[in-house]
Design goal:
- The structure is a homodimer.
- The first copy, chain A, is elongated, with a radius of gyration of 20 Å.
- Chain A contains eleven helices and five strands; from the N terminus they run αβαβαβαβαβαααααα.
- By secondary structure, chain A is of the alpha/beta class.
- Chain A has a five-stranded parallel β-sheet, sandwiched between helices.
- In chain A, 40% of the residues are buried.
- In chain A, α3 (73-83) runs parallel beside α4 (99-109) and α8 packs across α11.
- The A-B interface holds A 46-57, 118, 120, 141-145, 148, 190-193, 195, 223-231, 234-235, 241 and B 46-57, 118, 120, 141-145, 148, 190-195, 223-231, 234-235, 241.
- Chain A binds a DNA duplex through residues 2, 4, 9-11, 180-183, 195-197, 205-209, 211-216, 218, 224-226.
DNA sequence: CAGATAACACCTCTTTCGGGGGAGGAAACA
DNA sequence: TGTTTCCTCCCCCGAAAGAGGTGTTATCTG
């Protein structure tokens, strides 16, 4: 009746994450830096104006070039496979295929693919999942031009690049308690306004069991009511209402 | 103890809204079209890449020019007063001063200011408030280039420009029931996970009164639980959690 | 392998929610 | 002037929610 959804353990995941973050800001050189004169960049964002802005910014740089533009995650993966860009700029929430899934698919083809997530969402869970999936950088769309360009250079050079305030959120997430997959199931149904009984019926467990899960969720998220839990989870990017 | 927060009545507001929307898509000519050869555009968005994209798109057009860029609502109002642009492109959620407030301030100086809201939020309440404040257009950031340019031209010519799918949402909002200001107060506190008793203590009213408001909110929003109400309200842009 | 940890399931008990009403006062609209 | 809407408060009552504690089973950890 029960299925193990998370194949890797928490400690395994966090150890991997530490390894990924260890290179941040240290200036550690790439193990195999591309020899091309220009850094080729793939852009993936469903917002026309954002794509336009990135193209404009990159075209202005003599040491960079735009390799292609994707309007969703599926397209991003296809274009990546075709052109193998040096660096990929990727939004998180896109139609067809979301950013995290796109990162995972790309990294199935190349473990060392250099991907920067450029998005508006700053929830700790969003950041965590992106880095966990293999993103080398995480930037918000209000990032200044220079910082964006610097990040592209750094990621291209093999570094990991996450601004301090986002890294702090990430640290919070890592140090804080993790919701189990079952608890997330319950949380999602809670967010739909379902009662404990309805949740139980959906998940084929008793109402009492649902209550114990809800209790665990409250304790881990440090909230008192289900409404607060849903609001919190939405803000953190744990669920998208 | 009680203050009247909404000075204008519902019927007044909706009548005004109907007047504003009546010109949409009819091609009605402006009453006083500017005589300059180029349409001067003011850009206001806190996202660097979006501003960059808009500048890039507009610079490409021979009949348009960028008059200035603002990174928040306060700056947008200042720049508008300085340069009096033909058309203003404005994001909704910005630091310092939000988009709706900026629109209101600008229209205090010029009743006929031509403002287009360009944002990612498509909640009916967001759209309603923007149009209500006096926006002549409402576009999402995934709008194609041509549609954006067309909208700038149309708004400059004095038309109102709201895409059909957004206009439909707006119609839903207008036809649906309106929450009173007090009900919104309660809803906001509900979203923070507060109990009826706590809400009562915060608003200096009895718990019974809170329950009455909560009941009214459920009925108007057509939901059963407070969690559902908060999720719904957030999605619609009624509250920002 | 023993011991700890965590997820999952289930049980009672008290408090709070939420549905069903009703009612009076203030302000705005006709 | 009457009508409508909003805000305030009240009642009852069944159904949830939320706070306790128990036990079983995997999976790390030493």
């Amino acid at each position: 009746m029960r299925t193990k959804k998370e194949a890797v353990s928490k400690s395994d995941r966090d150890a991997a994450l530490s390894r990924k973050l260890s290179g941040a800001g240290t200036g550690r050189a790439s193990q195999r830096a591309p020899k091309k004169s220009r850094i080729s960049v793939l852009i993936a964002d469903d917002h026309t104006v954002v794509r336009e802005g990135l193209v404009s910014l990159i075209r202005r740089k003599p040491d960079m070039s735009v390799l292609g533009e994707a309007t969703n995650g599926r397209e991003a993966v296809e274009l990546w496979k075709q052109h193998r860009p040096d660096v990929t700029l990727l939004d998180l929430r896109m139609p067809e295929l979301d950013g995290v899934s796109a990162i995972k698919e790309i990294r199935e083809h190349d473990e060392h693919a250099r991907i920067i997530v450029l998005t508006t969402f700053d929830g700790d869970e969003d950041i965590y999942r992106a880095i966990q999936a293999g993103a080398k950088g995480y930037l918000l769309k209000d990032v200044p031009r220079e910082a964006l360009m610097d990040s592209i250079h750094r990621v291209h050079a093999g570094e990991t690049c996450v601004p301090v305030h986002l890294a702090a959120k990430l640290a919070e997430r890592v140090s804080g308690e993790t919701l189990s997959s079952r608890e997330i199931d319950v949380l999602k149904l809670m967010a739909q306004g379902k009662s404990n009984k309805e949740i139980g019926a959906t998940l084929f467990i008793s109402e009492g069991t649902v209550k114990s899960h809800v209790k665990a969720i409250f304790a881990k998220m440090n909230v008192i009511s289900r409404t607060e839990a849903v609001a919190n989870a939405t803000r953190r990017g744990l669920i998208q209402l």
